[in-house]
Amino acid sequence: MKTPLIAGNWKMNGGVEANDALVRAVLGGLQASGGAEVAVCVPAPYLAQVQTLTAGTPLALGAQDVSAHDKGAYTGEVSAAMLREFGVRYAIVGHSERRQYHGESDALVAEKARAALAAGITPIVCVGETLAEREAGRTEEVVKRQLAAVIHLNGHCISEIVVAYEPVWAIGTGQTATPEQAQAVHAVLRAQLLAATAQAARVKILYGGSMNAANAAELLARPDIDGGLIGGASLKPADFLTIVGAARAD
Ligand code: 13P
Questions:
Q1: Cβ within 8 Å of residue 117, ≥6 positions away
Q2: What is the pLDDT of residue 221?
Q3: 207 Cα to the center of ligand 1, angstroms
Q4: Are 229 and 208 in contact (CB under 8 A)?
Q5: Residue 15 Cβ < 6 Å to ligand 1
Q6: Span from the CA of 73 to the centroid of ligand 1 (angstroms)
Q7: Structural Rg of the chain based on CA atoms
Q8: pLDDT by residue (tens digit) across 84-114?
Q9: Closest CA to ligand 1's atom 9
Q10: Could you tell me the pTM of the whole model?
């Protein structure tokens, strides 16, 4: 059985004082950690702070984005090698907020996944359909297209990635995909990965989109839901720890 992964995505939230309190509270509740792997993906300026706070603990450090380039004249970007120097283990790539507000294409997301993998960082590749796409019956086509770009470029090491299915209409809206809806898409993604490599059975496919303390257990009980990518609830230590506990119990 795969070890579930619960990753918090703080998005553009936090501050030195607040991060300290949040990480300490999460660590306090993780003491009895068994079962689930747990990570927090923090804004880049706080990587050093959270690296110090989490050193030697079971809480892994993640970034929210990574440059597709190794180095050079790319103002504002952060390379995978730089992230690695701060102990980063995971990097979210292709979050729908980056696709939407920063025009990230499927091809760029695939390049970012490649850059992360080359530096020994596990990319958490986000895919997901908008409400209009779901209503038009295009969910499967959209998520498969998004994942296909990453598989195409990273074929030989695709079993090293983590996938996150995040329906855009469920992000930050309080409207969660039902466990049946999520499982159905996860099964499609699993089949697509398996068609690329038999090793893909071990790829973790996380669900993200208004996952919270109340609905996590039901979602995580589904066979192809291997964890969660948690936004809002990752800023509330008690809620985040409840989700971690639900993953453990699975
Ligand atoms: P929420 O949990 O706030 O809906 O955000 C999900 C998300 O986008 C995680 O990456």
A1: 123, 154, 157, 160, 161
A2: 95
A3: 9
A4: yes
A5: no
A6: 31
A7: 17
A8: 999 999 999 999 999 999 999 999 999 999 9
A9: 231
A10: 0.97
The residues spanned by each domain of the chain are: 5-246
Q: pLDDT per residue over 146-183, tens digit each?
A: 999 999 999 879 999 999 999 999 999 989 999 999 99
Atom 1 (ligand 1) nearest CA = 231
For residue 204 the two structure tokens come to 């973790």
Q: Which two tokens stand for residue 246?
A: 């639900």
Percent of the chain with pLDDT over 90: 91
Of the candidates 240, 234, 242, which has an alpha carbon nearest to the alpha carbon of residue 14?
Answer: 234
d(CA 117, CA 7): 18
As a whole number of angstroms, the distance between CA 17 and CA 61 comes to 18
Q: How far is the CA of 72 from the centre of ligand 1 (A)?
A: 32
Answer whether 166 contacts ligand 1 (Cβ < 6 A).
Answer: yes
The pLDDT value given to residue 248: 67
- Any residues with CB less than 8 A from the CB of 183 and at least 6 apart, and which? 222, 223, 224, 225
C-alpha torsion sign, points 219, 221, 222, 228: positive
Does ligand 1 come within 6 angstroms of the Cβ of 117? no
Question: What is the CATH architecture assignment of 5-246?
Answer: Alpha-Beta Barrel (3.20)
Average pLDDT of the residues in 130-149: 97
From 37, 104, 166, 186, the catalytic residue: 166
Judge if the beta carbon of residue 62 lies within 6 A of ligand 1: no
Of 62, 68, 64, nearest in space to 153 by CA:
68
Rounded-to-integer distance, Cα 125 and Cα 104, Å:
13
- The mean of the pLDDT values for the chain is 95
